[in-house]
Amino acid sequence: MDRLFKTEEWALSGFDAMFVCFGSQVKHGEETFVKVDKTYPLLCADIAIRNKIPHYLLVSAVGGDASSSFLYMRTKGEVERDLKLKKLPLLSILKPGMIKNR
User: Fewer beta carbons under 10 A from the terminal one: N or C of the chain?
Assistant: First the structure.
């Protein structure tokens, strides 16, 4: 997944949408969680912008809040906020409820 850091190497043409549904768990460590749930989706947005993919969709979570004291909710809120700042042509943020029985 670290290939995502080389956004300029991703040549994607003819795509109408990018659907991002990465997810980790806090139990794997804060660094890994933030990398998977925030950094990677933001890099994907850069790839979508660079490749003129008009619709970006992210699976986030209900309750995401960039000012939360809980890492999970804060990270979800931060990625949603940062994606909105990128001014993607069409951004859909999907917020399902809790996932059970992983």
Answer: C
